[in-house]
Amino acid sequence: MFYIVERTTTRGATVTTATTAPKKFRNQREHDPDSECAQAIRDTYWTMFGHYAYPGFDVEDFDATVTQLQLATGWHKGFVKNAILGHAALQDLPRLRELQQETRLMDVGHLTAVYTAIEELGEDVDEEALMLIDGILVNTFTPTRHDQAVPQRKTVTDRIRAAIKRTDKSRAYDKRKREKREQDNSEKFGIYEYRDRAIVQLDTNSLDGRRIQANVAEVARELGISTSDAAIKLLSGEAIGIEITPVLNVYSPKNRGNGDPIFIPGCGWTEPEAATAFERWIADTFIDERDLDAELQKRLRGYVPSEGMRHAVYARNRTCIYPECNRPAEQCQLDHRIPYDEGGKTTVSNLFSLCAHHHNIKTDRRVYYVPDPVTGEIVWLHADGTFQVSAPEGFITDYLQPTNPRWKTTLEKRRQKRKDRAEFYNRCHSAVEKYENDLDYDACMATIHALEDRFGMTFEYPPKKQPEDPLDILAALEWHWREVECAEMHEYYAIRDYPPDPEVASYL
Which residue has the higher pLDDT, 51 or 484? Predict the structure, then answer.
């Protein structure tokens, strides 16, 4: 697409040149009534809420303001609240605010995703982290192709959370206390009574969670019962003796080293805890490995693709390939882009994941798609002559053309991942030590929960709440200072390299 520009020289001659048209998302298409109507709605949102986006703007009574706008518009109160908070998040993101002021590209849902993800930074967010997030979001909402599908809200959230994990900070902690604390891991399993119901809670890593899910699903299938009944039978011991063979599919790069992430469908790239669990699991279980590179080159004579080819498609597509459809690829149908009865081959390059609804639309020839074999982008051609572009989101794309900051850094260098993990544990242990001094349990747990949300990790060594009875508190403090005194005496005699006095030794 080109623009024709005419200009007049100083001698009066007319010169005609062609310039490339600026790239725009599909929802910015000119002379499209639907796109123009949607743009008008977003323009209205900016008119009503845009002033909240500028630094220094505040309201004295937030609840009253929300109620007033809700009554005036008839919109749901939650929508109004999110609209205000979403636009207010732009106060700390100047480049994104400028882009939104110019284009009004993001709707309230996008802005809600922005502010809820940034909240995970907590109160101590620094300028460097905000600048990083600002740049990532500007790049996210800057199209690279004509008629590219607008990024989804989950994309916004994922990229912000990935950016948070890249911050390079550290917190001091007492090594001896940390080692002692980590020797006593708290329970992650509990059953809680609520009215006439019991709630079973298990906090574990993403890999073990998927293994449990696979076992429950297999028992349910074997016995012909619901998954909830199957879980009860497993936990209560009634399922003992039932022979099942659950299958869990995970994806791993060929050059993966110990501790590097794996990809779990439905969960994404694992955190260090799940990666460690994966190492333990594969050490004592049967592994059926499939080479996805080989599957990409495989060609079958029949219509039905092999199991390996299916997983290669899942790894490449991740979801239904129709623009803005989030149905997981594992729940989709495999479409022969060129129909099999019209000469289309059963190869990975000719197979794509489409949910039943969008598969029917394609089969009815209401739309047609053409994949770019180099970039992985898919151009969708509509019956009215228009087109739109959907960007690749699959695991293979992340691996070959990484856009996720965390995975990109991991591929290039594992140092950043280690820094993230060190920062998380250093900050959490520091919060625990602060609690040991000020005994503010609620503040300590709030800090730990904020850090867990920020890093997407779980702190396994939370403190036990100290008793609130004054006598018990004094006893606890006395014991604490005795430990401090003992540690200092140990250090004193160790430095001087001679044995302590017998009386001192008996005290220690």
Answer: 51
